[in-house]
Design brief:
Layout lengths: L2 H10 L2 E9 L5 E7 L3 H7 L1 E4 L13 E6 L5 E2 L8 E11 L9 H10 L7 E16 L5 E3 L11 H15 L5 E6 L5 E6 L2 E2 H21 L3 E3 L13 E9 L2 E2 L12 H21 L5 H4 L9 E6 L4 E5 L12 E3 L8 H17 L17 H6 L9 H9 L2 H7 L1 H19 L4 H7 L3
Parallel strand pairs: 1-6, 15-16
Antiparallel strand pairs: 1-2, 3-4, 4-6, 5-6, 7-8, 7-10, 7-11, 7-12, 7-13, 9-10, 13-14, 13-17, 16-17
Length: 440
């Protein structure tokens, strides 16, 4: 829409309140709320804010930033309609000099997607979002489960109502949900997106989390997107399905290959395998993330790839050979605590590094890696992911590719923020330590 068309639509929709939203470094939605009659001014002059007060943006002496609404993201809040309707618009962030802010996560993804234009590529992704819902969580984080169901099982009445409302609400935000179902853990659910361009899916992931939080609050429930909220239970991931298109053609597909993958697809896989240790600092961005990445569950720890093998880091799902556009692979280590703009940037640029340098992936692994002999792992040079956020950040710090992907300013800020997070964690005295060592 043009500015004029949007202003007329807002008036016709009787929208009186607008939420102007953007993402911080951690993928949390920030917003400023304005009367709809101020949008015209906002489109001309921007909405100014103190960037130094938002994690990851600017230093105190250069803190003036402004929001510029992206008109394509206008959506009405379906849950507010009492004569005064509300809507949201996602914004890009600009400096006082009128340039895109070089530390804005959405801007970072746009910058990296722009690099594909000289190849005429489009990076498309699909995402699987996992999370837990509880009836109650007390101040000591004692959990009351919503259900005791398992994979693809029926949930409770509240669980079914929640899923129905999420699907219905998401559609009004232009989010095409392919499927929603109960996951392996008690009270655990998964929602799958139809694939689209990476920037649109990143917007939709943040929007879906926003929708879920609103609906569970209305239902009197609690949701967590923590990767590993419950010890000895299934963790929650964000599997990322990826493919490259040139126009309408999926260039990861090849008829001649036994896996139906093109040479470019193999290069892309090889690039991700090469850089995954550094990438994991972004796709698995918290201390808690690495408590999900342990042997014995479906989350991968071995840096490998294979056909339909859920113990590998990269999995080739089965797709209909009549549907060439479905050729893709699935990266299984990311989780939903990741900032999707930054996560998609890192997996894209590591894959593109594989294409530029004509990298070759190792041999595929079709055995269950969780039960394979350690000697075979060593013989085949199958490495493992970092075991902690600290190890991942150390890999990230050494990566020239990650610095190029983020830009120097955000690269340094990300390292500083994550090292601070690790330092706060490592001085904690946990209940496990008290039980283990108190009476020694």
């Amino acid at each position: 829409m043009t500015k004029k068309e949007l202003l007329l639509k807002i008036k016709g929709d009787n929208v009186r309140i607008l939420h102007l939203q953007f993402s911080d470094l951690h993928g949390e939605i920030k917003e400023v709320i304005i009367p709809s009659n101020k949008l015209d001014d906002s489109l001309e002059k921007g909405i100014w804010f103190d960037g130094s007060s938002v994690e990851g943006f600017t230093r105190i002496y250069e803190s003036d930033l402004y929001l510029k609404p992206d008109l394509t993201t206008y959506s009405i809040f379906p849950w507010v309609d009492k004569g005064i309707r509300e809507a949201r618009i996602i914004c890009d962030i600009y400096t006082s000099q009128g340039r895109l802010c070089e530390t804005g996560p959405r801007n970072i993804l746009k910058k990296n997607l722009e690099k594909l234009k000289k190849y005429k590529y489009e990076f498309k992704v699909g995402a699987e979002i996992e999370f837990y819902i509880f009836k109650n969580v007390d101040n000591n984080y004692n959990l009351t489960y919503l259900d005791s169901s398992g994979y693809f099982d029926l949930s409770t009445k509240e669980g079914d109502e929640f899923i129905s409302r999420v699907i219905e609400t998401a559609a009004q935000f232009d989010i095409n949900i392919e499927a929603a179902h109960h996951e392996v853990g008690n009270s655990q659910f998964e929602i799958d997106f139809q694939y689209d361009s990476a920037d649109k899916i990143a917007d939709r992931i943040l929007t879906l989390k926003y929708i879920i939080k609103y609906i569970v609050r209305e239902l009197g429930l609690r949701v967590t997107f923590m990767p590993k909220p419950i010890m000895n239970a299934a963790g929650s991931g964000m599997h990322i399905h990826q493919s490259l298109f040139m126009g309408e053609e999926n260039i990861f597909y090849s008829e001649k290959d036994k896996y139906n993958l093109s040479k470019l697809a193999y290069n892309f896989i090889a690039g991700q395998i090469k850089h995954i240790k550094a990438v994991s600092a972004v796709t698995c961005p918290s201390v808690n993330s690495f408590k999900r990445l342990v042997s014995g569950y479906e989350a991968p720890i071995y840096i490998s790839w294979g056909r339909t093998n859920r113990s590998t880091l990269i999995r080739l799902p089965d797709w209909s050979k009549k549907s060439k556009s479905s050729a893709r692979f699935e990266l299984r280590c990311p989780d939903v605590s990741a900032n999707p703009y930054l996560a998609f940037s890192t997996v894209l640029m590591s894959g593109m590094d594989g294409i530029k340098n004509n990298l070759k992936p190792p041999k595929p692994v079709e055995e269950n890696l969780y039960k394979i002999d350690p000697d075979i792992l060593e013989k085949n040079h199958i490495d493992i992911l970092p075991g902690s956020l600290y190890e991942a950040i150390e890999e990230f710090k050494k990566s020239r590719l990650m610095e190029e992907t983020f830009g120097k300013r955000l690269f340094d800020k990300y390292i500083e923020t994550k090292i601070n997070e690790w330092n706060r964690f490592k001085v904690q005295v946990t209940k496990w330590e008290l039980n283990q060592y108190f009476d020694q």
